Here is the input.
Amino acid sequence: MAEYGPRSRKCRWCGASGGSWDCGGPKCVPLPMRDAIMRFKHDNGTYWRDKLRKAWESGIYDGVDEGDEHLLQSARNRFGSRCLGGPNNVPKGGE
Here is the structure.
């Protein structure tokens, strides 16, 4: 069994064991934040993680709408770089 994936017993966002691929538990990254991270990933290509880390450090989100800017900053403040683990396990086609 793969460590992460649709048939895994680990959440790809928080790493909680015994749940599902998207557990949605109390310690898990909320869906609106997940969606903002996935949009950022889609819009920024291969080096999206580096771009997001730079945006987090500088507070400057070039080309990101205001709603997503707030969600991305909230994800950083609440979860730190841990919330970037979920998109690492998303197949190239998206969800």
The first helix runs from residue 31 to 44. Helices lie at 31-44, 48-58, 66-79, 85-88.
